[in-house]
Design a protein that fits this description.
The protein is mainly alpha-helical. It has two domains: 57 residues, no CATH class; 107 residues, Cytochrome c-like domain (Cytochrome Bc1 Complex, Chain D, domain 2), CATH 1.10.760. Helices cover 62% and strands 0% of the residues. The N terminus is likely disordered.
Length: 183
């Protein structure tokens, strides 16, 4: 069936290079010409949009003083979003100041750091993502979990770099949980 449809399509439509080179003037007249031109234009537009999307995703930004400054602003905005998300989704069990409300553990302090020190930010993210909120485990968007982890890290003075965190396992595994040296 698909070969028949393809064969009919190929017989009624000129090859794309013919359309682009001749502007369809040598192909057909009237209504068939405008309909065919419409479909080829639509296909070409789709392919160009797809190519642009693919190229745009694979281009890495040039790192400069400006981009690191904007990275710091993005991280500050992420921490702020994380604080708001924590207040909405976590504070009712873990307390607004992260000190914990029985039976929910504290998310700050020596006990917290002893448990997580030396592990990767990914481990904390993965634990939270799979188990919280308790009444809807894994029910938040991954972006929300990453924002909350950024907030927890900054609150606990954990060095997570100067750029916004992403839901990227390799990136999060490369960031160790350790206190900043700024004390």
């Amino acid at each position: 069936m698909s070969r028949q449809v393809f064969a009919i399509w190929c017989k009624t439509c000129p090859p794309l290079p013919v359309i682009l080179i001749n502007g369809m003037s040598s192909y057909a007249n009237g209504k068939q010409r405008s309909e065919t031109y419409y479909w080829w234009s639509l296909l070409l537009g789709f392919l160009l949009a797809l190519a642009y999307q693919t190229v745009a995703q694979n281009i890495s930004p040039v790192h400069s003083a400006t981009s690191s400054h904007s990275g710091a602003k993005a991280l500050a905005a992420q921490v702020h979003r994380g604080e708001n998300q924590y207040a909405s989704n976590c504070a009712m069990c873990h307390a607004q100041d992260l000190s914990g409300l029985d039976p929910a553990p504290a998310l700050t302090g020596d006990k917290f750091m002893r448990k997580w020190q030396g592990k990767a930010i990914w481990d904390l993210y993965d634990k939270i993502r799979k188990t919280m909120p308790q009444n809807d485990r894994g029910g938040l968007k991954s972006r929300v979990y990453v924002d909350i982890v950024a907030y927890l890290a900054k609150f606990n003075d954990i060095n997570i770099g100067k750029r916004e965190l992403r839901d990227d396992q390799n990136l999060l595994k490369s960031i160790p949980i350790a206190k900043s040296n700024s004390q």
